[in-house]
Every structure is written in C-alpha cells, then in structure tokens.
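Schema walk-through. Below, the input block comes first and the output block second. Nothing else is stored per chain. Lengths vary across the set, and this one has 371 residues.
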Amino acid sequence: MIRIRDMRNSSSLSWCGLLSLVLLLGACQEAETTLPVRKTLEDAVFASGYMEQENNYTVSAKADGILLSFRIQEGDSVRKNDLIAVIENDIQHNQLQDAIAVYEDAISDAAPNSPQLQHLQTQIQQAKKQLAFDEENYSRYQQLRDKNSIAQLDFEKVELQYQNAQTNLQALKKNYEDVLSSLKLNEQRSRVQVNTQRSLLQDYHLTTEESGQVIKVFKKQGELVRRGEAIARISSGAYVIKLFVAEGDITKVNLGQSVAIHINTYPDRVFPAKLTKIYPGFDEAEQSYIVEAQFQQFPEKMFSGTQLQANIETGRRENVLVIPSDYVSKGSFVRLETGEEKQIETGSKNDLITEVVSGISESDVLVKPSY
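--- output ---
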C-alpha cells in the first residue's frame, strides 16, 4: 500500500514538473523584446493655461446701492461710453439739486444788479456827489483864505470835511470790491460743489471704457451692489494664450519658441503658436510664472476662458538613444535577453520613451518586464 501510494506521489510530481516546464517555455516565447534606437528628440516644457482676448477690463460699482437698470447680457456687443447699468441715486440726485440751487443763488448775488451790490453802488454814487460838493466848497474856501476873507479855523473845517469825503469814497469802493470778490468766490465754490455732485452722480451710472463683447455678467437687476464689486467683464481684440510655467522650467523658456496648443474644445487637434511675452514677476496667486503665446493657426471658434494645455519646444537633440518607457523597471533598471538586470542612467522621459544616457548600447536586446 505504501509503495503504490509512493508510486502515485512520484507520478504526480513528474506531471507538475512537466507542466511547469511547458508554462516557462511558453512564457519565454511570449516575452516582448526590443532594441534601443537613436532618434531626434524635441525637448519641451509643459504648461497649462487658457485663452482670452488681449483687451480685458471689468466694470465695477463706484457706489453702494440697488441696480435699478441693467441693460446687457453675456454675448452682447458694446461701444465705448455705453451706459450699461444705473444704481439707485435718489439721495445723490437731491444733493445735486440742492447744490445747483445754491449755485444759482450765488450767481444772482454776484451779478452787478444784485440788491447787495446795488446798495453799495448807491452809497458810492452818494459819496461821489458828497465829494464833489466838498471839493468845490474846499476850493472856494481856499480862494477866500488866500484873500484873508475867512478865518483859518473855518478853512480847516472845510478842508477836513473834504478829506473825510475822499476817505469815505475810497472806503466804500474798497468795501464794494471786497464784497464782490467774496460773492464771486462763493459763486466759484458753489460751481465746484455742483461739479462734484455731478461727478458723484456719474458714479451711479456705469459706462463702458472701450468697445468689446460682454464676456461675463456678475449681477442682476434689483440686486444690492457695493462699491468696488464687479458688475461685468468685457473683452476685445485678438485672442492670446496665457500659460502658467513652473519655477523649475521658466529658465528654459525664451521668446519666439514654438508652442503646440491642445485646446479642450478641440481635443483631437493641435494648434501651432509662438511665444510672444514673458512676464517678469512670479505670480503669487497662480504660484507660477506667466507667459503669452499667439496662435499661428486659429481655431474655427474661440471663447474667452477656454482651458488648454501646451508644450513649449525648448530645444532639439539629434542621435539620442531611447527605449520604450515600459521596459524600465524600478526607475532605472532594464532586463537583457540574457536574463541579466542592468542599471542605466536616464535622461528626459515621458509615458512613451525614456532617454538612455549610459548603461546599454544599441545592440543590447531588452526584455519587457512582466508585472
């Protein structure tokens, strides 16, 4: 019984070994192999971004209030200085009317026929008549004194009266000039106040700065708005490409480099562009550097804000040894056809190919790892 059992065990072990050998030979026959090849590589920097028109601005509220009128929708075309919204302005309008009333009163007060100036003019005319009378009387008394026909005291009284008349006239004229100057100054100040109130009232009327298309509307009629809040965004001009470049890549980027653009609205196409601008400062909000490119071939339809990805070509290298990236295991190891595992020094890589700097040659047959 034991021997038979042993024979059966021996037979089972032989079948297992044979089956393992068959599977191993099958696996060896099915293993994929490749040879390193030399290619021309184009180095590129990846960047994400979006497209927008070159002229963009936001119309913002300059005062607090309710939007009484909102005359635009997204997609509308606008011209420069178009009125697009009105904010409730009853208080400001009343203040303007008060300022205009004060200004009109000031104009009336400063006019030559105003009661105050007419009264002063009357006083001046009376003073002139009194001066003429006193001057004539003084001249007559002077002649009498020369003939010793009057007492010196009488002459001095007449002389003093003449001098007082002169002084009084000069004082009245000076008073008139002072009052007129004060009234004119009040008129000017009132005019400034009217202009100020009109300017403030204009803050309640929102107008466009330049012609363009309404890209985004942020508020609706009847909503409360605060000073500084965005009401609408308007764009115009040619479309440009805004790209965000990582800190480690910005030194590789130069003006005039070719850019391959992949637009989300055209997922199966690539559009050529050229790098046209590099912003000098680091953008804290985006945590990257910003560059601009311009299309060399435009998409049929373009929309501001469309997301995209780009490869900025930074150089070309000839005769570079490369292998498929899926033949590399553990970061930098390859397996030769002989079964030997070798470590290689890699350069640039992507999901498809890996650059081989050293470690293998074009004659080495590589086996694809099985995972």
